[in-house]
Amino acid sequence: MERALRKHLPGGVFSGVTPRASKNLSAVRGHNNRTTEVRFRLALVRARIRGWKLRPGGLPGNPDFVFFKRSIVVFVDGCFWHGCPRCAHIPKTNSSFWRAKIRRNIERDRKNGRKLRAGHFRVVRIWEHQLRNDLAGCVARVTQSVNQKPNRQAKREK
């Protein structure tokens, strides 16, 4: 648990968390999640969109997909963990902890987006609910970004 979040918990520890809830949260995958990353990866393959790397590392925020030649990063964000303005919620148990945790995740995402844009990357964020409701639209957004002309300034600095 993050040290900065301990102050939001009574005594600095989780209390009242059932073993079932603990098991459910520990099962949440950080990557290769079927409802987000795997689903979008399959959609890119089916649409024959090429030139991307899966979680290459070394970039702020660890983007899920990176098109290095086009300077595009794609994040596929889970609605709960990244604080989706449309459908995220705060659990009733330990709500002060979760509110702080999700707020920090949102701030971290914004900061990493600014760093990437400063490095001349275009940032595309796709929410979990967007994949669920309009997978073709999400693929179209990425296709449109890939087909745009690259940023001239980024080309000059390479």
Task: Please tally the β strands and state the result.
Answer: 4
Q: Into which percentage range does the β-strand content fall?
A: 5-15%
Looking at the structure, what is the overall shape?
globular
Mean pLDDT: 83
Specify Rg, calculated over alpha carbons.
Answer: 18 Å
CATH H-level name of the domain at 77-158... which superfamily? VSR Endonuclease
Helicity level: 40-55%
The total of helices stands at 6
Name given to the CATH architecture of the domain at 77-158: 3-Layer(aba) Sandwich
**Major sheet description:** 4 strands, mixed
**What letter string, H or E per element, gives the SSE order?**
HHEEEHEHHH
- Determine the N-to-C terminus distance: 39 Å
Strand order in the largest sheet: 1-2-3-4
Contiguous runs where pLDDT drops below 50 for at least 5 residues: 154-158
Give a structural overview:
The chain contains 6 helices and 4 strands; from the N terminus they run ααβββαβααα. It has 158 residues and is of the alpha+beta class. Strand 2 and strand 3 form a beta hairpin. The protein starts with 18 loop residues before the first helix and ends with a helix. The chain has a domain at 77-158: Endonuclease, Chain A (3-Layer(aba) Sandwich).
Task: Provide a compact summary of the structure.
The chain has helices at 19-26, 34-46, 95-118, 128-133, 135-147, 152-157, and strands at residues 53-54, 65-67, 72-77, 122-127. It has 158 residues and is an alpha+beta fold. The chain has a domain at 77-158: VSR Endonuclease (Endonuclease, Chain A, 3-Layer(aba) Sandwich), CATH 3.40.960.
